[in-house]
Amino acid sequence: MTVTKNLEVDNNIIPFIPESDFYFSRGVIAYRKRKFDLALKWIKKAAEKTPSNPLFQCQLSIVYTEVGSYHDANQILTRVLSEQGESYMDCYYLIANNYAHLGLLQDAKKYANIYLEKAPNGDFIEEANELIELLEIGIEEEKEDGDDDWILEEEDEILIYQETAFSHIERKEWEQAILVLEEMLTLYPSYQAANHEYHYALFFSGKEKEAIKHEEELLEESPASLSGYMNLAIFYKHSNQFTKFGEMLQILDNIYPIHEQQKLRLATTFAHIGQYETSYQRFRSLNRSILKGHAMYFYWYSMASFKLQKFEKAEELWQAGCYQHKWLEKKKRPWLDEEIIH
């Protein structure tokens, strides 16, 4: 532990000024005691004081993983890889583990394999091999749709764009999301998921007609795209195109995805368009332990619960969401919020 002391003070008082390694040591102690909120507080202080220290950043990502904030964890890890290069190969395994928790099996497998290739004598070799075995079983069981056939084979930079855009959209920062997605689509035009997210951000930034036009064109090109149907259902409902909305709703009512991520997106879509009973039933079938890293899980599940007069459950879900995602504490409860939030 290192502290800085200023000896040139009056009255012989020597102030105690903690430095980053002091904060870090306190965070590690809290982490070992599984007091993750306290660990997060201390290690964030350490990382903020010495942002160039990759050890602090990696440990911060591990705490985020423990509290289910997998996207936040991966944002940090990809930044460490970008800045430190080959020095922190364990980041690849940690990213793979986070993707597995998020249900993004192909991405998880990719990064686990990169880890095995780049760190054949690494500390997580056994865990990485076990993870790949489990992922291969899961991938075999899944039925891929048009969006999921696209497997990341591009450089690691795409992950940074993906995580950054997701973070902006989840926080309803539409203009920032649009800028990130436009740059991403310039570099990776074949990444269909980014197109859907771009149209979503475009719609809620006020460019409704443009967003609908582009999403309709994309769905015509890829009629098996679940994201296209979900986006258009939301767009048609909010733009009062009720005939088209009814057509989308009829299609979505008969879709039961296999991926947890798609199940979540569909459940939130039903809540977003006011189909609260259907939304609630879809949410009940989700695996909370996998999806607690998504703020929208808690936001829309609590909304659906409240609308069905399940008030205690709605409040419990909201409090759990605020515990997992501190930025939600600054938001109104969804049933009191007049704004539309992803």
CATH architecture of the largest domain: Alpha Horseshoe
How large is the radius of gyration? 22 Å
Which CATH top level class of the largest domain fits?
Mainly Alpha
| Amino- and carboxy-terminal Cα gap | 43 Å
Which ranges are low-confidence, i.e. pLDDT below 50, for 5 or more consecutive residues? 1-15, 143-153
State mean pLDDT (0 to 100 scale): 83
Strands, count: 2
Strand order, sheet with most strands: 1-2
User: In total, how many domains does the architecture comprise?
Assistant: 3
Concise overview:
The protein has 342 residues and is mostly helical.
Question: Can you give a write-up of this model?
Answer:
Helices cover 68% and strands 1% of the residues. With 342 residues, it is mainly alpha-helical. It has three domains: 3-141, Tetratricopeptide repeat domain (Serine Threonine Protein Phosphatase 5, Tetratricopeptide repeat, Alpha Horseshoe); 168-255, Serine Threonine Protein Phosphatase 5, Tetratricopeptide repeat; 259-342, Serine Threonine Protein Phosphatase 5, Tetratricopeptide repeat (Alpha Horseshoe), CATH 1.25.40. It has a two-stranded antiparallel ribbon. Helix 2 packs antiparallel against helix 3 and helix 6 (105-118) runs antiparallel to helix 7.
Topology, please?
Elements: E1 3-4, E2 17-18, H1 20-32, H2 36-49, H3 54-66, H4 70-84, H5 90-102, H6 105-118, H7 125-141, H8 157-170, H9 174-187, H10 192-204, H11 208-221, H12 226-238, H13 242-253, H14 260-272, H15 276-284, H16 288-291, H17 295-307, H18 311-324
Antiparallel strand pairs: 1-2
Helix pairs in contact: 1-2, 2-3, 3-4, 4-5, 4-8, 5-6, 6-7, 8-9, 9-10, 10-11, 10-12, 11-12, 12-13, 12-14, 14-15, 14-17, 15-17, 17-18
